[in-house]
Amino acid sequence: MVAVTDPTVEPTRADTVTTPTLGRRIGVVPSASFIAGAAIGVVWLWVPIAIAILGITLIPTVIGFVVAAIAFLYLMRGAEWLERVRSEAVFGMDIPVPARKSSPRSGFQGWVHQLWLDISSTRFWKGCIHHLGRMVFDSAAGGLALALLVFALLAPAAAFAAGGGDDAGSSFLSPALALPLAAVALAAAAAIVVFSPILDAKIDLWLLSPSPTAMLQSEVDALADARESAVSSAHSERHRIERDLHDSVQPRLVSLAMTIGLAQTKFDTDPSTAKTLMAEAHEDAKTALVELRNVVRGIAPTILSDRGLDAALSSVAQRAQNTGISTTLNIDLPRSLPAETESVAYFVVAETLTNIAKHAGASRAVVTVRLDQADNKLHVSVFDDGRGGAQITDSALATGLRGLADRVRAARGTFTVSSPPEGPTTITAVLPCAS
């Protein structure tokens, strides 16, 4: 899988935090999660602490310290991932993932550099504080709830047992006092179990979310990346137009002019040859018009603006069908889309089918265009059963994968290529549909 993203920063998963309602923080599932966390926390709390202490004691050995540090890093990263999964499953919170710096280096050196970037990041240490803080809170609150529950169960029994013996007067609890205290203790234990998940959710929001500054910086980086992609796409498009005019239309027009010029010299001396040359010139003119229409179609297809994306893609699929590729088109568009989104989706499908016809050696292609109204994004995928090995490279021309990737990124979308060497190949683009 090849994804076109900034090579140094991973994007956030969302722009805003989905804050859970009170009903999602109070109930059977949050309470059960709290009880499980309290039980597991007694042991889970000490695992990273033990590894950290072990690493500190092994500092003189260097290797032992490095191994312990790596184990601690991966353990805490796994714990952070589990906490995000738990928060989403229990509270319905979609917490943005802070941007993670990625090393530009490769090989073993890149792996070591990545370890350093991770362990020195604010995200990592906030995750450590989150893990320790939540485990301490859950264990302490759970222990208190358990103590209150034990008191609520044993105090009345002890009071009544003592009340019937010779030492009844020495009991610090009388049966009359034990029952109300047991009821209060039981209510307090239940309150801890029911309301502690509220603080659990707050801890998740405080420590797992990126700071407002980090989210703003991520948005700025995304806008800068989109601008760069737009400039790159426009530059590549100009080169494509120049190349198409130079390689197809211009030679055809030169040939047309030469044929007409030759015919002019034959009008008086050889009218039949002149007539034949004019017929050839007429055919050249029609061919030049077709080639010019193809160039213009790559700039702004008229059918897209006149009849919409569905009709435009049907036309593209029919052209692919005429090349001998069995093309299936699946479109699910319950409403109209912004013009920019339709344009990018059209070019993704059109250029991909063109590349399939030229290079893939495929017999079948499947185009799927679906609007997901839940996240308001258009999902476009093109599958073919030809040979694989498609890759995004900086040297690709505008009509190649790099040009498509730049178009999609300029529209704030994501573009991925899945193409193992033996095939098949699937091109996927996800485009936001905000008006």
Mind telling me the CATH class of the largest domain?
Alpha Beta
How do the strands of the widest beta sheet line up side by side? Answer: 1-5-6-4-3-2
Question: Are there runs of 5+ residues with pLDDT below 50, and where?
Answer: 1-15, 165-170, 395-399
- Indicate the CATH topology of the largest domain: Heat Shock Protein 90
SSE succession: EHHHHHHHHHHHEHEEHEE
Shape: elongated
Number of discrete helical segments: 13
Find the count of extended strands (DSSP E, 2+ residues): 6
Distance between the termini: 30 Å
Query: Helix content range of the residues, please?
Result: 55-70%
Strand-pairing-aware structural class: alpha+beta
Mean pLDDT: 79
CATH superfamily of the largest domain: Histidine kinase-like ATPase, C-terminal domain
Cα-atom Rg, whole angstroms? 34 Å
List descriptors:
six-stranded mixed beta sheet; alpha+beta; 6 strands; single chain; disordered N terminus; 435 residues
How does this structure look, described?
- The protein has helices spanning 22-25, 28-44, 46-57, 63-91, 107-119, 122-163, 175-208, 212-266, 271-297, 302-307, 309-322, 339-360, 401-410, and strands at 2-3, 326-332, 364-372, 377-384, 414-418, 425-432.
- β2 (326-332), α12 and β3 (364-372) form a beta-alpha-beta unit.
- Residues 1-15, 165-170 and 395-399 have low confidence and may be disordered.
- The chain folds into two domains: 18-208, no CATH class; 244-435, Heat Shock Protein 90, CATH 3.30.565.10.
- It has 13 helices and six strands.
- It is α+β, with helices and mostly antiparallel strands and 435 residues long.
